[in-house]
Fold this sequence. Notes:
Blueprint: H1 7-19, E1 34-39, H2 45-56, E2 64-67, H3 68-75, H4 78-85, H5 90-103, H6 111-127, E3 130-133, H7 137-140, E4 147-153, H8 156-167, H9 171-193, E5 205-208, H10 214-227
Parallel strand pairs: 1-3, 1-4, 2-3, 4-5
Helix pairs in contact: 2-10, 3-6, 5-6, 8-9
GO molecular function: kinase activity
InterPro entries: P-loop_NTPase (IPR027417)
Protein name: Cytidylate kinase-like family protein
Amino acid sequence: MYSNLPQKIDRDIAAQLKSLGIGERRTQKHQFPCITISREFGCEGVPVAQSLVEKLSTEDYPWILFHRKLIQEISQKDALQSDLADIISDEKRNKLHQYIEQILSHKPINVQQYKKLGQTIRVLSTRGRSVILGAGAAILASDIPHALHIRLRAPMDFRVKRVSELLDITDSEAREKIRENDTERQEFIYEFTRKDLRDPHHYHLIIDNSKFDASMITELIYHALVLRNMLPEVK
Length: 235
């Protein structure tokens, strides 16, 4: 179905999208939530996202982790964009396009690239059963009622220690890498949406990663879903 993609990306994307019913024109019986995770560089975004997918997935209803690079790959493939559009109703598709046009009304330089990226995130958010890591998803899915938006942050010393250990670099090098990555993320989202991803109003929960590790954060997010009655009862 996606033979024009590089083989590794082909397998990765095709397997993940098939789990959401893309390409099968399948109607989902239940409205599942979407979880977006924004994080400062050096926080445990990936471990939390992976842990959530494992905790929430069942045999019949698998959850999928979508990170920014994977979303960008999907958004650059016209065939995948067409398949994505087919998994939501015409009404939701019209609202999707209206929202993206509003977000991009300031006409950024890469407007077409941003439009496709935004549409991909909106469809994945609308569909549910997805954990979206980064890419400004909390802003792009801000009006979707079944989306839960999380922000991970931590003091600089915590992030420096973690990045230094993960990448085997000096604390000074880790601090510089953190600053570069934080700035790149903020500038990317601002150019895209004209909004500041650090604004706490974008999120339902802001969690200090230095006080809660990945497993604890996973439990906090799960219980937030339960308390907000966002997990459907499925049989």
